[in-house]
Write a structure and sequence with these properties.
- By secondary structure, this protein is of the alpha+beta class.
- It has a single domain, classed as Nucleoside Triphosphate Pyrophosphohydrolase (Alpha-Beta Complex).
- The chain has helices spanning 40-52, 110-116, 120-137, and strands spanning 2-13, 16-21, 27-28, 31-33, 56-71, 76-89, 104-109.
- Strands 1, 2, 3, 4, 5, 6 and 7 form a seven-stranded mixed β-sheet that branches.
- A hairpin with a 5-residue loop joins strand 2 (16-21) and strand 3.
- The longest helix has 18 residues, at 120-137.
- The chain is globular and about 45 Å long.
Length: 139
């Protein structure tokens, strides 16, 4: 099994959170593989910028998730360990990286986003991260 370390961001602006729709029509959060001895924080900020065109700041760690899938191209199972960060954007401007296979994306009210998110562990992650976000901002 291939084990990959990844990092990503749960980006909030006010009471909204940013989601992307991938090539499989799944609503997901921006994330990517950690390469070249980069820190998880650097990679998380970079993936949010590259995939969504959002410049955000990290407020706090959100936690880690792990999931496995079978890679058809590699013909073997892959385990992704994702380090997540709660992030704040100053405005709701974004740019979807269609060239990376994303089909859609937007900021959604938190409850609507939780309904949209495809994977149950990501639903929990958004809910917990929103509480951390409000705590960090004192609201």
């Amino acid at each position: 099994m291939i084990v990959r370390n990844c990092a990503g961001g749960i980006v909030f602006c006010g009471d909204k959170v940013f989601l992307l729709k991938n090539e499989k029509d799944e609503w997901v959060l921006p994330k990517g593989k950690i390469r070249d001895r980069r820190s998880p924080r650097e990679v998380a900020l970079e993936r949010v910028e590259d995939e969504a065109g959002i410049t955000a700041e990290i407020l706090t760690a959100a936690g880690d998730t792990t999931y496995e899938f079978f890679s058809v191209t590699r013909r073997q199972p892959v385990c992704n360990r994702v380090h997540w960060y709660v992030m704040k954007a100053e405005n709701t401007k974004y740019r979807i990286a269609f060239e990376q296979g994303f089909r859609d994306g937007d900021y959604f009210p938190v409850e609507e986003a939780i309904e949209k998110v495809t994977y149950s562990q990501d639903k929990s992650l958004v809910r917990v991260s929103y509480e951390k976000y409000k705590e960090e901002l004192g609201i």
